[in-house]
Amino acid sequence: MSRPALFSDTTMKFVREQFAHLERDAHGCERLFFENSGGSLRLRAAAERALEVSLSPDSNSRPNQAARDLARIQQQGESDLLAFFNGDPDGALFPTATASQAMFAVVRTIAENVPGTNIVTTALEHPSSYDACARQAERTGRELRVAPADPTTGGIDPAAVAALVDSHTSLVSVIATSNITGAVTDVAAVVAAVRARNPDVYVVTDGVQHAPHGVIDARGWGVDAINIAPYKMFGDRGNAFTYLSPRLARLDHEKLAAAAEPTWAVGSSSPAVYAGFTAIADYLAAVGAAAADTTASPDRRTALVAGLDAIHAHEQALLHTLLDGTDRTPGLRATPGVHVHFADETAPTPARDLILPLTFDRLTCSEAARAYDERGVVVYERVASSPYSERILRAVGLDGIVRVSPLHCHTAAEAERFLEVTREITALR
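Structure (tokenized):
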């Protein structure tokens, strides 16, 4: 099997020109930012467009020209979001300040409206989805069933989730990509497996970590809800969006009495956040066109998928570079003193996004993260002493990891630089 291809030099140049603070931080210090799972490098256009729109004092519900312009901006953003999710037009978009806030609201709505005696989730869930399921299970007297993680792959086996589902299961929650192991869940397979046991079960998916790395397909996967956070996919903090299937959107939920069905937005959303997402969508379409040396498809979904497919291919090529190295630099698998977890050498293309969990023989995770930082490389340690990480790490048999998360705007040369720094720090002590 041939390796995925890196971007061409022309596409790489275009991509890198779009990002702020790619090579230097806000203080002008040179660095390699490999901590995109904690946020992401920012598109200049997304921040600039959101700021431009946010400066307008008008309300988009008024009849004046400026207000009508704002309404069109929001409508375009909503259309772009629906295309990004591949959502049903009869479903709903739920704007919130954070993706975690949305997850709690969605899980509560299902628990309050859908009868059952149990809720199924997984050991790899982000705290927002796991805690939401645990809270609603306790509040409604349901059993919480937790599918185990696979300690070899760092992922979730669809059969393990389905084994916990019965005719009394009301809700299944499954993460699309683990923010600690990097493993990608076959969401469509999970949905098929659980609906074979209970055709009526509601399935919600945390798509936050997967969104910057690959295609999201709400209708193709068959999920009832999936959330994203633009700050994890090159946009600003302080806003998030969740797609809801038509049947979930119609469930009784908190809304203003005068709001039309199936509205989930409570109050007025800022057109600026929709403008920021449209800028992200424009960028994704442009990346797809640049990578294929063509013009972007006029069909927005097709253009977005092309961009995300190109991003995924480049990132998978970077993943291979980090794991197996180049003619000039040995990869992590060949570097003594460091261990890459959940990246079996027998799997040339692991089912994982561009997130690598590392441990070191002679350094704690915190020590290794500091050693990287001292050498101008930003990574992050996830350790079991953190209540946000403990459950997930224990589920895969680890006490901690150094999480390495580059992005598609990084080059093979930067991957080689990371490998060189890694060899330096493995020699410490």
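The chain has a mean pLDDT of 95. The longest helix spans residues 300-324.
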